Here is the input.
Amino acid sequence: MSDRAIAPLVFITGASSGIGQALAARYYAAGYRLALSARRTNEIEAWAAALGLERSRVQVYGADVAQVDSIVSAGRDCIGRQGVPDVVIANAGISVGMDTEQREDLDVMAQTFAINNLGLAATFHPFVAPMRTRGSGRLVGIGSVAAIRGLPGHGAYCASKAGVVSYCESLRGELRSSGVKVVTICPGYIDTPLTQGNRYGMPFLLQPGEFADRAFRAIEAGSSYRVIPWQMGVVAKLLRIVPNALFDRGAQGRGRKKRRGEQ
Here is the structure.
């Protein structure tokens, strides 16, 4: 019997480091076959070799989610080689500080949206029709608690992640009767290269492996929306109901995310 008939399949973007790599390890430990996508395929290959993963269960696809045709092609290639995945995790994303006063930061914002929003939709695109035909599957969008309220210096990132939450909510409604579930996962602070340069406190910081374990359980349960860790979900809800004047006062003086080129 082939691997395709034996083991379920997960497709993960941004799998060369951080959350994506931790999710790949968690799904592999659960018996899944892996379809891993990133621009830096050599880093995925080195990681898989270092862990001694069975190569019959791992396929690597080079793709740039900022280029629609690139990630769509990777998805179609995955279907051709490994079959329609059971789970698709649109994890690839960037987080760069911006200052609207600076012209070059408008380009940063455009790239952030290209990766975090359009890239997410393009990741899902090749799989929607075959999953609907099959009547099952999970499409997972990785948002952020930064989607809840806009933070100074984080305009591009906060706006993009708010877009992820709204987009996934729309897609969930579109696929409601199809058997395909749309899951939105909003991480709090996770100890990855994306957060290690932050210049402010990061409460309830989680290690990538712990986040991946909790996310795996939420995805398997078919949860529509989950903040991880849950404590950040409580904080986010409280921040949402705080009056603007009080919120703005509290955010004043908070460390801003580094702009591109800042050390």
In short: Strands lie at 9-13, 33-38, 58-62, 87-90, 137-142, 180-187, 225-228. The longest strand covers residues 180-187.
